[in-house]
Amino acid sequence: MNRAPLGAEAAPSVRAVERVVDLLTGWPELNEFKHTSIPR
Q1: N or C: which end of the chain has fewer CB within 10 A?
Q2: pTM for this one?
Q3: b or e along 7-29 (b: 16 or more beta carbons within 10 Å of the residue's beta carbon)?
C-alpha cells in the first residue's frame, strides 16, 4: 500500500478502512489476521 499524497482526497482511504472493518466484523469464519510490515 502507498500513502496518499498530502492534500489528496480522503474518500478512497476511508473506503479502504471501512472495507477492512467490514471484513473483520462481517466474516466470522476468518479467524487469522497477519500484521504486515511495509518499509518506509
Answers
A1: C
A2: 0.55
A3: eeeeeeeeeeeeeeeeeeeeeee
